[in-house]
Specification:
Binding site for substrate: 144-146, 192-194, 249, 299-302
InterPro entries: ATP_PFK, PFKA, Phosphofructokinase_dom, PKF_sf, PPi-PFK
Site (Important for catalytic activity and substrate specificity): 117
Structural class: alpha/beta
Number of strands: 13
Shape: elongated
Pathway: Carbohydrate degradation; glycolysis; D-glyceraldehyde 3-phosphate and glycerone phosphate from D-glucose: step 3/4
Strand content: 15-25%
Catalytic activity: beta-D-fructose 6-phosphate + diphosphate = beta-D-fructose 1,6-bisphosphate + phosphate + H(+)
Radius of gyration: 23 Å
Strand order of the largest sheet: 3-2-1-4-5
Oligomer: single chain
Order of helices and strands: EHEHEHHEHEHEHEHEEEHEHHEEH
Helix content: 25-40%
Amino acid sequence: MPTRKAAPGRLLYAQSGGVTAVINATAAGVIEAARARGVKVYAARNGILGALREELIDTAKESKAAIAALRHTPGGAFGSCRYKLKSLEANRAEYERLIEVFRAHDIRWFLYNGGNDSADTALKLSQIGKALGYDIRCIGVPKTVDNDLAVTDCCPGFGSVAKYTAVSTLEASLDVASMASTSTKVFILEVMGRHAGWIAAAAGLAGGGADAPPHVILFPENVFDEAAFLAKVKATVERVGWCTVVASEGIRNAAGQFLADAGTRDAFGHVQLGGVAPTLAGLVKGRLGYKVHWALPDYLQRSARHLASKADAEQAYAVGKAAVDCALAGMNAVIPVIVRSSDAPYRWKIEPAPLDKIANREKKLPKGFIRKDGFGITAAARRYLAPLIAGEAPPAYGKDGLPKYVTLKNASVVKKLRPFEA
């Protein structure tokens, strides 16, 4: 059989921001699609920092089986980072360095897999080729558990964290209900969601009736009303015997302050949050006197590949494949997005969208998805959310009872340039 001749130029793929249970499925989609087209793929070690530092990984050193196993492996196989490029005018040296690295390794396509801030970086990178005289095509690849990217119906990574949240809410509530007569009366689950309450809303899938958990959902789209919250908890405990609360980390008071502001900021300039669940637990205990337990799943909610949504895993792979198709078709400054055509049965497709319609934009929970009392989700929200957690795609398990996840070789590409410290 004749050997397929590789296409001229290389494709560079990088992961950015907080990883998800299915971001590696996107990586698999990228690499497998590129291999099928005869294009060699490099990966940047630790996101855009790897590109700046010329720390590149040769994915050709990985077997077909290893790349396929990425579809069921959580974490970021090549490393990720939180690093936002400034404008070309503010930091021209970084852009010149990127072009220098691209030239040195004949990189013609750059695919950046991330969320809002990563889309901004991808957009900026898509513009540097013309400005600095190098032909580089840049494609954004959607990913975020927050589900807050504009244009796309949903974001790869969200469906799995939504499933984890709904299942955890249901299971923990059964535990609380069984012990409520002599022990915990209120259970509080804190979930991710700085400005958008998509993950908190997903908890609402755990139950349907008026007395089914979660009894209280706190959304960042609503101003936190302490008196109304405590009254709702009290009334629920008196009627049901116990109460489950799910709270977004980003809920704010009437003054616009995060309830859990830790007083520090992350690499993107975002306020770092110190834990809204213990704050709420203190309120309930201090004002109502109930025994309270709280939980902060943190990284667990976004890394739980064993409980991933099948729909989410399939979409994550599909956007990776589509990103390669966009790049090799000569597109620039676009991002493949998910377009929904039907709720039941759930049908979707992938289409390219302009990056400038997504970068620096944020999609919040629609008002029509939040119940009038502000503490639950509507039927419209259920219709939107339910298909995204549908199906299971469990990893294979070994004889030791643990999932069989892959660890790549991540063989480094030989550097050709002087060191650069971002």
